[in-house]
Amino acid sequence: MNRFNIFSHLVSLTAVITLSLPSMGATNSTGHQMERMRSNTSGLPSQSSIEHLLSTQPKSFTSHWLAARLYEENGLLDQAREEYSIAIRCKAPQVGAYKRLAQINLKMNDYNKAESTALLGVNKFPNDFGMALTAGYIFHNEGKFERALKFYEQACQIQPQKSDAYLAASDVCLSMHNPARSLNYLSKALSLSNSQLAHYERARALVELGREPEAVEDFYVAFKLDRFNATVDKAFADILIRNKIYGKAMEVLLSCSAKAEGKDLVSCKEAIGNLILKMPDEQFVSVLQESEKNVVDKNLRARMHFSLGDIYDRLKLPAKAVEQYKLGLSLNPKYERGYLRLAEDLEDHYSNNSAALSCYQKAKSLEAKDPELKDPELNLRLSTLEKKLASVPSKK
Questions:
Q1: Are residues 79 and 71 in contact, defined by beta-carbon separation less than 8 angstroms?
Q2: Following DSSP, what letter does each residue of 90-104 receive, concatenated?
Q3: Which pTM does this prediction carry?
Q4: Looking at the structure, do residues 89 and 207 belong to the same domain, yes or no?
């Protein structure tokens, strides 16, 4: 789904606790697990202190809460879930345990337990904003939109001056294909916070209502607030291209190419390549010059040029590719793949073996982790070029 994850991108960490856990296999012995756990970095007591608490205060909420946190930090979700489950049964449990336990259950695809934990938490802490928001997220994630909206609205009532719950409510309304209702929540959210996400969500709602000119205005505000958000950039560019506003679409996509990763970068490059074929050269040059001013960070500007070099290579325009690689390397002379791509073009399209060999050697000398530099074929290319150059008689 082409949208932000409301829960993880919006909700303040003081209200709702989100998870960012490494994937680690569980072992069978709790004692051995404790022995193998890495030192924590979140201000928790030491492992030995937590073990002491568990042995001396086995019925204490704090003992099991801290043990659960330590397990969670180390990716031992089964053990963390067990300790949180004990913690919420202790005397005077705190709301955070219900939030974390509900989210771990969801992360482990145990939807029934995620729901039951969320409901227990909401019933025990009916005036806790974060608990209501957590419950909404649990049901939202499971596609139970009406129930999710009920809890988001509860969160709105608990803290009506926080925009998070209104944004979450707007998002679930869009999931229900009710953009008009979504706009009501977004009006309130924008009255509280002029955030990128609020403008992005409103743009999405307006698109669904067929009000694309208004959507473009919100997309533009969202873009200006952060021009390197790939989700916003791609959605904005799609609308602009659909309305044949190619210059602005290119500006947005060039910004996207400066920071996007993975599939976002692949789709961005493809869209830029298609636009290059539609735009007059002088228009593209003008947009590129403007983008160079707006992308202030040198390394990001270098990535933009490296992306363009790759795009021109795919369009079979090696002269322009070489130009872009050189521009990128002038901004970031430590980017090994830039030298690699430049070397390939110099060798394959210009037979400039001496310059190509120099670029290959520079790429190798940087000792980067790029897997392409470890490809045996690269060593073969180097060896072949060295032999070619050695066989050429020197000029006297």
A1: yes
A2: SSS--HHHHHHHHHH
A3: 0.80
A4: no
